[in-house]
């Protein structure tokens, strides 16, 4: 029986298929370490890194859903860091890197409905228990008990959110293949549907390393 789930079974499958997908679109993958230095050429990505505010900073790496804990870990840092360090919230900075299996969370409701992303990524609507046809983590925190942890509210609060372009490329290719559509068309539609306030970055991994180089502590979100 053919497995229609586009999620790779292991990291080797993911890397192999991602390489094939990006090669087909003429995408050049970033070299390891190119974003690690705090000085160097100015690019859209490095300018985004330099916009991370505050003296006390955290980057939450969120590759797998883990019940939405990437949102909670980010929210908890904003909630507790000012009191812990004796500083105003403006002197803290939070980064949330959305990559790998959490990538549909950066997309608007229309993409969830059109491409059945809840079914594809095995993400259920907490209110119905069925595969989500809307993004359950944007206006609401996916059934978590902290409304302020919803993605939209974190963005409005100043959290720097990164969306992994490598994951967008890979998964849009898998979905396009399954539906008999052109990969480039689906990827461009997904890129256009990324929520405002979210920065598309070359990869989630380079975003994590770049944020750490800018002084962020690293926290694994799932």
Offer a concise description of the structure.
With 222 residues, the protein is an alpha/beta fold. The protein has helices at residues 11-25, 44-50, 69-85, 109-114, 117-120, 151-156, 165-179, 183-192, 204-213; strands at 56-62, 92-98, 160-164, 198-201, 216-220. Strands 4-3-2-1-5 form a five-stranded parallel β-sheet, with helices on both faces.
Shape: globular
User: How much is the average pLDDT?
Assistant: 87
What is the end-to-end distance? 30 Å
Number of strands: 5
Which value, in Å, is the CA radius of gyration? 17 Å
Q: What's the SSE blueprint?
A:
Blueprint: H1 11-25, H2 44-50, E1 56-62, H3 69-85, E2 92-98, H4 109-114, H5 117-120, H6 151-156, E3 160-164, H7 165-179, H8 183-192, E4 198-201, H9 204-213, E5 216-220
Parallel strand pairs: 1-2, 1-5, 2-3, 3-4
Verbal overview:
Strand 1 (56-62), helix 3 and strand 2 form a beta-alpha-beta unit. The protein is built from 9 helices and 5 strands, in the order H-H-E-H-E-H-H-H-E-H-H-E-H-E. It has a 5-stranded parallel β-sheet with strand order 4-3-2-1-5, with helices on both faces. The model is unreliable at 1-5 and 7-37 (pLDDT under 50). The protein is α/β, with parallel strands linked by helices and 222 residues long. The chain has one domain (60-220).
Characteristic key phrases:
222 residues; five-stranded parallel beta sheet; globular; alpha/beta
């Amino acid at each position: 029986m053919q497995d229609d789930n586009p999620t790779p079974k292991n990291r080797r499958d993911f890397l192999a298929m991602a390489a094939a997908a990006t090669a087909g679109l003429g995408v050049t993958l970033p070299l390891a370490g190119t974003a690690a230095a705090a000085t160097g050429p100015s690019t859209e990505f490095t300018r985004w890194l330099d916009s991370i505010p505050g003296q006390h900073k955290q980057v939450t790496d969120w590759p797998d859903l883990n019940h939405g804990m990437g949102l909670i870990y980010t929210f908890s840092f904003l909630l507790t860091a000012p009191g812990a360090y004796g500083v105003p919230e403006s002197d803290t900075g939070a980064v949330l890197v959305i990559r790998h299996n959490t990538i549909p969370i950066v997309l608007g409701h229309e993409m969830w409905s059109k491409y059945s992303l809840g079914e594809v990524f095995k993400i259920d609507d907490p209110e119905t228990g069925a595969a989500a046809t809307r993004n359950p983590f944007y206006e609401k925190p996916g059934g978590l008990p902290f409304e302020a942890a919803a993605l939209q509210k974190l963005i409005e609060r100043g959290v720097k959110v990164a969306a992994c372009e490598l994951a967008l490329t890979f998964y849009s290719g898998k979905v396009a293949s399954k539906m008999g559509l052109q990969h480039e068309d689906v990827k461009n539609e997904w890129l256009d549907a990324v929520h405002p306030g979210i920065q598309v970055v070359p990869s989630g991994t380079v975003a994590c390393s770049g944020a750490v180089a800018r002084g962020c502590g690293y926290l694994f979100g799932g």
